[in-house]
Write a structure and sequence with these properties.
Elements lengths: L2 E2 L5 E4 L18 E8 L2 E6 L2 E9 L3 E3 L2 E4 L6 E4 L3 H22 L3 H23 L4 H21 L7 E2 L2 E2 L7 H16 L6 E12 L6 E10 L4 E2 L4 E5 L15 E8 L7 E11 L14 E11 H6 L5 E5 L1 E3 L8 H7 L5 E3 L5 E10 L2 H7 L1 H6 L2 E3 L15 E11 L11 E8 L21 E3 L10 E8 L10 E9 L7 E10 L11 E6 L1 E2 L9 H5 L13 H4 L4 E10 L6 H7 L8 H7 L5 H6 L1 H14 L1 H18 L9 H11 L5 H15 L7 H8 L1 H19 L4 H19 L8 H12 L1 H8 L4 H13 L10 H15 L1 H4 L1 H21 L3 H14 L7 H28 L6 H24 L2 H9 L4 H19 L9 H25 L7 H15 L11 H11 L2 H16 L11 H8 L4 H22 L3 H16 L5 H8 L11 H5 L5 H24 L6 H19 L2 H17 L3 H13 L7 E2 L8 E2 H18 L3 H17 L3 H20 ...
Parallel strand pairs: 15-22, 36-37
Antiparallel strand pairs: 1-3, 2-3, 2-6, 3-4, 4-5, 7-8, 9-10, 11-15, 11-21, 12-13, 12-14, 12-16, 16-17, 18-21, 19-20, 23-26, 23-31, 24-25, 24-27, 27-28, 28-30, 29-31, 32-33, 34-35, 34-37, 35-40, 37-38, 38-39, 39-40, 41-42
Helix pairs in contact: 1-2, 1-3, 2-3, 4-29, 11-12, 14-15, 17-19, 17-20, 18-21, 19-22, 20-23, 21-24, 23-26, 24-27, 26-28, 27-29, 28-29, 28-31, 29-32, 31-32, 31-33, 32-35, 33-35, 33-36, 35-37, 36-37, 36-38, 38-41, 39-41, 41-42, 42-43, 43-44, 44-45, 45-46, 46-47, 52-53, 52-56, 53-56, 53-57, 53-60, ...
Length: about 1950
């Protein structure tokens, strides 16, 4: 039977349990469980991390822990009774564990590893705490360490700051809000700004001395030297080095390391240095021979210095190498460090270039105890302590020091009968009173132990040596008296014996007879002469002699005149001995009673450090004198006592206050002193008003605290001794004293009068007296004293009176004192405190102090059951006095501009936070009763209204994110809890007072606005929290958003007809609330929208306002990242969601206005889909392509569906910024053009908008034009820039702004130059299909064509797309996917390359236009793209594949032309046609013919420095033809069977035959040209080609060419070297072929990309061998599949199109130089420069003209006026190989309207009667062109054009080698305009001749399209070029006659009717001139 557990409530899982039994609960080791019931060895309960899953588990698996149970019963919660630090550690580590793994996933390796170490460290510390074996102090340290680590981790992981008190987490409900704020701020401050340490220590470690000339032992002395005062400020640190320059005792670290302790902040200056003096131990001269002397001397070696400031700037842990200098003359040694510091270079130089001292230096900050804790290893390992000379800045009581420092300064000695000066060495001994040497008391420095004696260094031959060597004598105090120091002087001989001879001595006693020590300073000592054998052991004999010249009696002239002297400087640092006689006189006052007055007077002149040394003795002396004769000495003793008390206020001696406190408590015995002290104090207070000089009285009042301490202690001692006698008298005295004080405090005087300052001094010390008074008086008495004293203060209104601030400080200390904590005294003090606070807050003065006082007050008020009544009364008082003024203060300080200084700003923020905490504390204490009283206290509705507005405004301020630091979630939740509680109280007041007749819109609006921003706070969005944090918040506060949402709904329902006031204003805010992903909240808010729509419908019959506001707000909210998928469904779904309310749509369906409502919901839903995508794409880390695509989608929606101009323009600029960031300059220009088109050239003023200033419309349009031109320039789209330049130039000309007109014309000219001179890369185009539901809405199940980046091939593009969509799967086929793919919950990408179909055929087919110009039209303004897929239809003939090889040609039409506002546009239409094998053959041979023509032209024009491309092409064609290439076509199509079975193909067969003849003729002519240019070494190949050509002719059955062929020379007139690529005309298709192809760096110039072959492998290999070319395997692999003859296999699959790049380029000859491969510079010679030749005949030659007339109408010169019209356009018979038509004309001009037209080509003369005009609208029927021109000669490329051959030919040869005209078919193995499109129908031939001019009219008059100004303008999109980009055309360009082979007919006519059959596009929205 299951029994509920009583005590077994909480446990930890010891081992994992799988829960395989029935109702079993699976457990993991370490889980915590809550136990509900038990039964026979089993528990039932749940795991705390998942309380919903309950089950049973074995009892033995659980370790029980003690716990407290809250809310016993069904909803009980269990809190473990373990240490709160342990609980926090456990929960924190669990949270960290999850986040730690995420760090690994995010690749944040550094933090991952650091957190790992910290987590292990915390676990280890947790173990120590749990074991419980730690001492109390150690436990404290461990907890401190744990909390520091927890805080560090929380900060690194951006978790919340945890408020703690004594290491334990604080429950916000258990403490006041002000206390919580202080804790939070304390932790925040601790984290932010550690206080700068006032004490510093320098760690020094001697590493080594690096020098080449060592060999002797060294002594190194470190000290700290103040160059400003020219004195050392520390002892010396002494290290011995061995002969190698390394420390002599490496095992003893304390002998190599030291800590220079107690440096003050003032010592860390630039002019404080570390000086290093190095002394060598050895022979007198550094270079002396070894045998000269064995005696070792200390001799100068070198010196180094480094500034302490250098350690502050650099990395202090680095080792430093110090340069070592030596002095030029030894006598300067004593000041060498000064010379180095001052850089007196003449006096020192380097000891050696490679000498350096390696030391480690590090500054440590903090007091010595802190250093011991933090750098424990230093002290455990051993470190010498080097002290400062003298006491540190702060003297600690109990600090024992008794160090005498003696510096050997200099000496003056006689020669002593020698011819040279002496080598003097001093030996120093310390002797006691008996003359015995004191052992181990002479120290050369810390680091080495002290010795018995000290030897100075020796200066060579110097009778006036200066040493400046410091020694330390740490003599015990008890041995000081009678001791003396003896200095013995010896001459050190440098002779062989090397003996040291004594020649004199000096001595100095350490203490005088009267007990004073040797005074500090320099002493000139007498040198007493003596011999080596003199008996100095008997010190008594010489101690009677005088020792110093300073204290010789006047008659002892003999000794005074002696020349020999010795100077020392002494300095005593002692905490027990004094050199001050006055101090000794005072302490021995009983011996000299007559000197008492004098001694007391002199006390003020004695140094403070002397007084504190003898503090207790001095105080005993003073009270002894007072007891002796209080009448006589009372005032003097009082003054002395005041002096000593004030001395302890000094920071240097402040640590002696506890010494005085101890003295008062334990040693003070003046039981009668209180009378005298009160009496004198009252006397001083009474004299204040009359006294002229207040300084002394102020000193007395400063000491008030300690005077009262003495008074109270004295009285207590008296009471104890007498049993409480004279109590009344004492009380009376104290009352009288306070009356005097109150009287002087009540005096009003001028602002800066002395009395005011005295009052201020008293108020500062007054609060310290309370505690003392409480020792004798009861709480209420003391409270009355204080109240009356504070109440007596004058009410001063002076703004800058210092007394005001001091008064507040006094009140603050009062509130913080023990007195105020007692409820009895608090009720007495509160009114006076509130009175002063209210006055200051009203004046807005001293806010920092006011905040501090309020914080202290509220910290004391808790909801305490015992004193509920008293607290309630206090709250009443505070609400009445301060609530209003507190609200005003918060409003005031938050609206003030923040101060500039950092410190001020920080203080400012603190004040705001503290006032907010005070307000929250007050509101949290208020109960129903308080709110009721508060609301009743308002006399009228206006006051109540003002109060409500004020408090709502303050609440809005409190909710601001910047109110608290971002990790203060605890504080924010408390704030929100208080706000919602208060709002619930106040909403009643709102309903009762401001509805119906008294409706007040402003209050209601403020209420709703507050509610909305309350719900939307980030800190309440529980969905973003971790599960544990969310659980805690819900348990403590619930979901406050839902509570506030319900309140909004309730209040809205109360509004009734007043709802109309909030429509549409509240739509946006309420919409924001519904975006919160909380189902309950949404269900509460959605009905409000229905209500709004209903009321708006009633009012105005529609809800346009609601719609507009909804859309605007949705946009701004989604941009901020709010909303989610379910939100869209909430608006859209018919199914009721979650709660009682059905969805909005369902509610609308019941209304009369159903249709418009549903329409609105549909629009909003579609907008949301786009906005959600936009939001997702704009996330950090998303690729630019996605962002751009999404922005375009949204922009289109705003323009076309919503017609919201402002939003449209905003998104234009967002898109523009994205393009600039991605460096898509062309797209950026097109995008900005959208805004430009909305503007007119008018002077209408425009408001400031986005980044545009207020300006006229003309100015803004001008600025936009210039920006667009700049972007077109950067994007190398110069033709478009030229159009805008012209338009701008027209405007400048209109306004006679010739300066700008000139600039614009120059800019235009520069763009023309760039077109001709600069290289332009042609992009690839790729078709991308996005299939599957996982794609964003704007991509889902759509296909696009994308313009690739420069040099980007298919593989690179595909990889880029897969990187953008990492979850996408690449489809490996090109077939259209089926419905299962469309509906799949996945992402599929289908990518393949497509070829552009240029629209501007007139430019591309015009002769003489350089390729630089044509290249622009091949890849710009492209609407249509093509993709070819070869396949076999019917049975495949293995002998001849061409019989059944068909091509499936897919044409894709886009919604906008590329390039445009995006790099990709959606495919609007997909057309699919099939080309028969015959048509395919015609197209392939046409392409090859075109390629041959181009190469021959380039060769003739000498554009190719290398003839290899032509050689290879000829070889490929001839070789393939000989080996059966063309023969295969003959077999396939010329056989009788085919002709009989396909009668409709008769004309096409004829056309094929013509092309084959044409190819033979071109080859013949090409061989002639080749012969002319072929180099000598390739002559054999040429001969072979000629032979093979004859074979080829015979194989084709060609014995000779027809007359018309023979008569016509091959005429190449096109100057463009790029002709070959795409210039076959629209004979087969108006669509043209693929324009662009990248080529490999080795590709040959001028080879047609679309050429393909069925070569014999033998021939192609041969060519490869000749030219050094070989196809790489991968190149071949990536080729397009192609049909082949016997030589090539034919796998005619299209799949490589998907994954491979565009067909790889033909390999170029290694002989080609790079400049020929890449240069694109084209230039044209003038006609007169062109040579005449067979190819370029002289137009004046009559025979040639005659020949052309004979040929027939199609070859007539097109500009010859003598020919009749019929002769020019008769039948489509083959022409005379007019190779001038490198790019033949598609004269369809009508499709160019609406596009950005390039600068027009200079027109040729138009001849009367020419049918050119008639032909123009007949597209795609091209016009024939003659092989010759009129006397206006064609442009011929200049010699420089040969350089452009490099990039001309970046077309790949699709089959893998240069080949004949038989196709190995590629995706685009057609000419640029090859004819899959139909020929025009008959009726089109009758089109009016005025078509051209009509089109110009249309172009100028129609409104602009919505987006691209460069769209097609056929009947499908009848939108002309806007006025801003239209270029008037003066006359029609001349007609371009078609070549005979172009006039094929009967070719898929349906395609040709596209223009007429396709319905018109929907008109764009009428143009609206922008208001922005």
């Amino acid at each position: 039977m299951w029994i509920p557990t009583e005590h077994e409530k909480y446990g930890v899982v010891l081992a994992s349990f799988r829960g395989t039994v029935q109702h079993g609960l699976s457990l993991e080791i370490g889980d915590t469980v809550q136990i509900l019931e038990k039964c026979e060895g089993w528990y039932r309960g749940f795991v705390l991390k998942n309380p919903n899953a309950k089950g049973i588990f074995p009892l033995s698996y659980i370790h029980l822990k003690n716990a407290n149970i809250k809310n016993k019963g069904q909803f009980e919660t269990v809190i473990p009774t373990e240490d709160s630090v342990i609980t926090e550690m456990t929960s924190t580590l669990r949270d960290w564990g999850t986040m730690w793994k995420q760090l690994y996933v995010k690749n944040e390796g550094d933090l991952f590893h650091r957190l790992w170490h910290v987590m292990n460290e915390i676990l280890d510390l947790r173990r120590q705490v749990l074991v419980g074996h730690l001492t109390h102090d150690r436990m404290k340290d461990v907890k401190q360490h744990i909390t520091a680590r927890l805080d560090w981790g929380n900060e690194q992981l951006c978790l919340d700051l945890v408020p703690r008190k004594e290491f334990s987490m604080v429950d916000p409900d258990e403490i006041s809000v002000t206390e919580l704020y202080k804790l939070m701020e304390h932790r925040h401050r601790k984290k932010d700004t550690p206080l700068p340490a006032s004490t510093h220590h320098l760690f020094v470690q001697m590493k080594s001395l690096m020098s080449s000339n060592l060999g002797e032992e060294l002594e190194v002395y470190f000290s700290i030297y103040d160059s400003k005062e020219n004195r050392p400020i520390s002892e010396r640190f002494f290290v011995r080095l061995n002969k190698n320059g390394l420390p002599k005792s490496p095992e003893k670290t304390e002998r190599q390391c030291t800590l220079f302790v107690d440096l003050g902040s003032s010592d860390l200056r630039k002019d404080v240095y570390i000086t290093v003096h190095i002394i060598r131990i050895g022979r007198m001269g550094a270079g002396e021979k070894k045998n000269v002397s064995n005696v070792q001397y200390r001799r100068p070696f070198g010196c180094a210095v480094i500034s302490i400031a250098d350690l502050l700037t650099g990395d202090s842990k680095d080792d430093h190498i110090l340069k070592v200098y030596t002095c030029n003359t030894e006598s300067e040694w004593y000041q060498i460090h000064e010379n180095i510091i001052k850089k007196v270079n003449a006096r020192y130089n380097l000891t050696g270039s490679n000498t350096g001292l390696a030391v480690s230096l590090q500054l440590l900050h903090g007091d010595i105890e802190q250093i011991r804790r933090e750098y424990m290893v230093l002290f455990t390992r051993g470190v010498a302590i080097t002290k400062k000379l003298g006491f540190s800045d702060i003297i600690m009581p109990g600090e024992m020091r008794n160090d005498l420092y003696v510096t050997l300064e200099k000496g003056e000695f006689e020669k002593g009968g020698k011819s040279v000066a002496r080598n003097v060495e001093i030996t120093v001994f310390l002797l006691d009173c008996d003359g015995q040497v004191l052992k181990n008391y002479v120290s050369a420095g810390s680091g080495e132990p002290a010795g018995d004696e000290f030897h100075s260094f020796v200066l060579y031959h110097n009778n006036s040596p200066r040493w400046a060597e410091q020694i330390k004598l740490p003599i015990p105090v008890d041995r000081f008296r009678g001791s003396h120091v003896r200095f013995e002087f010896r001459h050190c001989s440098t002779k062989e014996k090397g003996e040291k001879k004594l020649f004199g001595f000096s001595f100095v006693p350490l203490m005088q007879e009267d007990g004073r020590t040797l005074p500090d300073g320099t002493h000139e000592l007498i040198v007493h002469k003596c011999e080596e054998n003199a008996n100095l052991q008997e010190s008594a004999r010489y101690l009677k002699l005088p020792f110093s010249k300073g204290n010789l009696p006047g008659n002892n002239q003999a000794v005074k005149t002696t020349k020999e002297s010795f100077w020392i400087t002494s300095f005593l640092c002692s905490s027990k001995l004094t050199q001050n006689g006055d101090m000794l006189d005072l302490l021995k006052w009983r011996a000299h009673p007559d000197r008492i007055t004098d001694s007391l007077s002199k006390l003020k002149e004695i140094d403070g450090s002397e007084i504190v040394k003898f503090l207790q003795d001095t105080l005993d002396t003073l009270f002894g004198i007072l007891d002796e004769n209080s009448q006589r000495y009372g005032l003097k003793v009082f003054d002395s006592l005041v002096h000593i008390i004030n001395l302890l206020q000094d920071s240097k001696f402040q640590h002696f206050k506890p010494v005085m406190d101890t003295y008062i408590e334990s040693h003070f015995a003046g039981a009668l002193s209180y009378r005298d002290l009160i009496k004198v104090l009252k006397w001083y207070v009474d004299r204040i008003i009359e006294a002229e000089h207040q300084e002394h009285i102020q000193q007395v009042l400063k000491a008030t605290e300690y005077i009262f301490k003495y008074i109270i202690q004295s009285r207590r001692l008296f009471s104890l001794a007498t049993g409480g006698q004279n109590e009344e008298e004492f009380r009376c005295c104290v009352h009288e004293l306070f009356m005097s004080i109150r009287f002087f405090l009540s005096q009003e005087s001028k602002v800066a009068s002395p009395i005011t300052q005295t009052q201020a001094v008293f108020l500062k010390t007054f609060p310290a007296v309370y505690c003392e008074l409480l020792k004798i008086f009861n709480v209420r008495e003391v409270a009355n004293f204080v109240r009356e004293t504070l109440g007596s203060l004058p009410v001063i209104a002076h703004a800058d009176c210092p007394l005001e601030a001091v008064k507040l400080q006094c009140i603050a200390k009062t509130v913080e004192s023990q007195l105020y904590t007692n409820p009895d005294s608090r009720c007495i003090l509160l009114p006076v405190v509130l009175h002063h606070l209210q006055m200051h807050l009203q004046e807005q003065k001293d806010l920092v102090m006011c905040a501090r006082i309020l914080s202290s007050m509220f910290s004391l008020i808790r909801k305490d059951g015992t004193t509920e009544v008293s607290i309630s009364e206090e709250v009443d008082l505070i609400v009445e006095s301060l609530l209003g003024v507190l609200l005003r203060t918060i409003l005031e300080i938050t609206n003030r501009p923040q101060p500039a200084g950092t410190a001020l700003r920080l203080q400012f923020q603190d004040v705001t936070g503290e006032f907010v905490a005070c307000l929250l504390a007050l509101l949290r204490q208020m109960t129903d009763k308080h709110y009721q009283q508060l609301l009743e206290s308002f006399s009228n509705k206006d006051d109540l209204r003002d109060f409500l507005l004020q408090i709502f405004t303050v609440f809005r301020i409190l909710i601001r994110p910047e109110m608290f630091p971002k990790d203060w979630t605890v504080m924010r939740l408390v704030t929100n809890n208080v706000i919602i509680t208060t709002v619930l109280y106040l909403s009643d007041a709102l309903r009762k007072n401001f509805l119906n007749d008294h409706f007040d819109y402003k209050v209601w609006d403020s209420y709703f606005y507050l509610s909305v921003i309350f719900i939307n706070q980030p800190c309440l969005q529980l969905e973003t929290f971790s599960p544990s944090k969310k659980k805690k918040v819900l348990e403590k506060y619930g979901d406050m958003r839902v509570m506030m949402g319900c309140e909004i709904f309730s209040m809205w329902q109360n509004l009734g007809e007043h709802k109309l006031n909030f429509i549409p204003a509240m739509i946006g805010p309420f919409l924001e609330v519904t975006l919160v992903p909380q189902p309950d909240l949404r269900n509460v808010m959605i009905p409000i929208f229905h209500d709004m729509m209903d009321w708006e419908q009633r009012r105005s019959g529609s809800f346009k306002q609601v719609e507009a506001k909804l859309i605007d707000k949705l946009d701004s909210l989604m941009s901020e990242g709010k909303g989610d998928e379910t939100y869209r469904e909430l608006f859209n779904s018919i199914i009721p969601l979650f709660g009682p309310y059905p969805s909005l749509l369902k509610k609308i369906e019941r209304e009369t206005w159903r249709e418009s409502g549903i329409s609105l919901i549909a629009t909003v839903t579609r907008l949301m889909e786009r906005l959600l995508d936009y939001r997702d794409c704009m996330k950090v880390g998303e690729v630019d392509g996605k962002k751009i695509g999404c922005t375009v989608s949204l922009l289109n929606f705003y323009k076309t569906e919503l017609n919201k101009e402002e939003m449209y323009i905003r998104y234009i600029h967002k898109l523009y910024d994205l393009h600039l960031k991605a460096q898509n300059y062309t797209e950026a220009a097109y995008t900005l053009l959208l805004y430009d088109e909305l503007l007119e050239w008018s002077d209408r003023p425009l408001r400031e908008f986005l980044n545009y200033p207020m300006q006229t419309e003309w100015q803004r349009k001008e600025y936009l034009h210039l920006t667009i031109i700049q972007n077109f320039d950067r994007g190398k789209c110069w033709e478009n820039g030229i159009i805008l330049c012209r338009e701008l130039a027209d405007q400048y000309e209109t306004y006679y702004d010739y300066r700008n007109l000139s600039k614009m014309r120059m800019m235009e000219a520069s763009l023309y130059d760039k077109i001709m001179d600069q290289q332009r890369l042609e992009p690839e185009f790729f078709r991308v299909g996005f299939y599957g539901k996982k794609f964003p809405f704007f991509l889902r199940n759509k296909e696009f064509v994308c313009r690739g980046h420069d040099y980007e091939r298919l593989e690179a593009f595909q990889q880029r797309m897969l990187n953008e969509f990492p979850h996408a799967i690449a489809m490996q086929h090109v077939n259209q996917p089926d419905e299962t793919i469309f509906q799949a919950e996945a992402q599929y990408l289908q990518i393949y390359a497509v070829g552009p179909i240029p629209e501007s055929q007139d430019v591309l087919q015009r002769d003489g236009v350089p390729d630089n110009i044509k290249s622009f039209y091949k890849v710009n303004h492209i609407w249509r793209f093509r993709y070819d897929r070869p396949f076999h239809k019917g049975t495949k003939d293995k002998e001849n594949e061409f019989k059944s090889l068909w091509v499936e040609r897919t044409t894709l039409t886009l919604v906008q032309s590329l390039p445009g506002i995006s790099r990709w546009f959606e495919v609007e239409k997909r057309e699919l046609i099939e080309m028969s094998p015959l048509e395919n053959a015609i197209e392939v041979i046409e392409n090859k013919n075109l390629q041959l023509r181009t190469l021959i032209t380039q060769c003739q024009a000498r554009q190719m420095q290398n003839i290899n491309p032509l050689t290879m092409c000829l070889n490929g064609v001839i070789d393939a033809a000989v080996n059966g290439g063309l023969a295969r076509y003959q077999e396939a199509f010329f056989v009788k069977d085919y002709i009989i079975n396909h009668p409709e193909d008769g004309e096409k067969i004829g056309r094929l035959r013509e092309l084959m003849f044409e190819q033979a003729h071109i080859l013949e002519y090409g061989l002639a040209v080749h012969e002319k240019f072929v180099p000598q070494d390739m002559r054999p190949l040429h001969k072979k080609l000629v032979d093979q050509f004859h074979l080829m002719k015979s194989s084709l059955g060609i014995q000779d060419f027809p007359a018309y062929v023979r008569a016509s020379p091959v005429h190449f007139t096109n100057g463009s070297p790029r002709i070959c690529r795409n210039s076959v005309p629209n004979a087969i298709s108006p669509d043209g072929a693929r324009v662009i192809a990248r080529r490999s760096p080795l590709s040959y110039p001028a080879v047609n990309r679309y050429s393909s072959s069925s070569l014999s492998s033998q021939a192609s290999n041969e060519v490869s061998n000749i030219t050094g070319q070989s196809e790489s395997s991968d190149e071949v692999f990536n080729m397009q599949p192609s049909p082949s003859t016997s030589s090539l296999s034919s796998t005619h699959s299209a799949s490589p199109n998907v994954t491979s790049s565009a067909p790889s380029s033909a390999r170029g000859s290694p002989l080609l130089s790079d400049k020929h491969k890449h240069s694109r510079e084209n230039a044209c010679l003038s006609p007169r420069d062109r040579p005449c030749s067979a190819v370029y005949p002289n137009p004046q030659d009559p025979t040639q003209r005659m020949i052309t007339h004979q040929i027939g109408e199609n070859s007539l010169p097109r500009s010859d006026p003598n020919l009749s019209t019929p002769e020019k356009v008769v039948n489509p018979t083959p022409s005379s190989w007019s190779l001038d038509s490198g790019k033949e004309a598609n004269t369809q001009f009508s499709e160019t309207v609406g596009k950005l037209v390039s600068p027009p080509v200079p027109p040729r003369p138009q001849h009367q009667g020419s049918p050119a005009r008639n032909m123009r609208p007949l597209s795609p029927v091209p016009t024939p062109r003659s092989p010759q021109k009129t006397s206006i000669q064609s442009f011929t490329p200049s010699p420089t054009e040969c350089q452009s051959s490099g990039l001309v030919s970046n077309s790949p040869v699709l089959s893998g080698s240069y080949s004949s005209g038989i196709s190995s078919l590629s995706r685009c193995s057609v000419s640029e305009t090859s004819g899959t499109e139909a020929q025009p129908s008959e009726h089109m031939l009758t089109t009016s001749t005025s078509s051209g001019s009509d089109e110009l009219t249309r172009r100028e008059n129609k409104t602009p399209p919505p987006y691209s100004v460069y769209e097609r303008t056929n009947s499908r999109r009848p939108v002309p070029l806007p006025h801003s980009l239209s270029v008037p055309v003066s006359s029609d360009p001349p007609a371009l006659p078609p070549k005979p082979h172009q006039l094929r007919s009967g070719k898929l006519e349906s395609e040709g009717r596209r223009a007429s059959e396709q319905g018109p596009r929907p008109r764009p929205l009428p143009r609206k001139v922008s208001q922005l």
